[in-house]
Amino acid sequence: MVRAPCCEKTGLKKGPWTAEEDLILINFITQNGHPNWRALPKRAGLLRCGKSCRLRWMNYLRPDIRRGNFSREEEDTIIQLHAQLGNKWSVIASRLPGRTDNEIKNVWHTHLKKRVAGKTEIKNGEADYSSDYSRKVELRSPGDSLSEVSSAVTSDAGHGGFDDALMSDLLDKWPEMGDNFWSEIFPAEERSDFSSGNSNPQPQFAAPELHMEDSSFWRDVFNRAEEHVMYI
DNA sequence: AAAGTGGTCAACCGCTGCGAG
DNA sequence: GCTCGCAGCGGTTGACCACTT
């Protein structure tokens, strides 16, 4: 038996999302939630498959996402959990409020894997600084995180034309959804590890302050959206 | 200044698990 | 109990960017 493809391949857009698409998705989910990802793009008027919409929302557009600035504690927690759980990125993500499995997976592969490997070598009495990366990691000041450094580089670049008034206007609009907006729309998404008695308590970080304020992404989206609107 | 190299991260692909009928 | 459709997950890719030579 052949399973039907996840989506109609023809006519569907792939690749990077545009600011316009982001806004359409945000607006649609804001108003309707996402009871059915498969049907969502059609209803929202997006030429994307449901999977793509879901991924974009879960990993990038959800307002309760913290972007960049992995703290040293978070990185250590990822290393610790990975040692316990292996590549269970979604489980690890559930222990790190505001972090997505995709982001954690990326951080692991780009930073932490090497760090762990480096420490193993150090443990074996053969500190190997042949890799420039491990040198950076080991020499940086305590409490600093590498991702903090990299995000500082990437997130602040290219936002010269950002209109703070536009951002604050948009931020003003969020409370209209009500404080319980997200829990209403996504009851199934409540992180069971936090909402229910977690039998295996893990280090908790400060509750995710809502991150729209400090999210470089939103700056970028609204910046690009503004540019887009100028063309309309 | 140009080319090469490596790092980063968003997004896609394919598989799995689960629930409804 | 079986089939089907869906959401979710983990692996992988590729474009972009920064740094080095």
TrEMBL record:
Keyword annotations: DNA-binding, Nucleus, Transcription, Transcription regulation
HTH myb-type domain boundaries: 9-61, 62-116
Gene Ontology terms: cellular component: nucleus
UniProt xrefs under InterPro entries: Homeodomain-like_sf, Myb_dom, Myb_TF_plants, SANT/Myb
Cellular localization per UniProt: Nucleus
GO molecular function annotations of the record: DNA binding
Chain ranges of the Myb-like domain: 9-61, 62-112
Presence of keyword Transcription: yes
Keyword Transit peptide appears in the UniProt entry: no
Coiled coil: none
A Pfam family per the record: Myb_DNA-binding
Record-linked PANTHER family: MYB FAMILY TRANSCRIPTION FACTOR, TRANSCRIPTION FACTOR MYB14
Name used for this protein in its record: Transcription factor MYB14-like
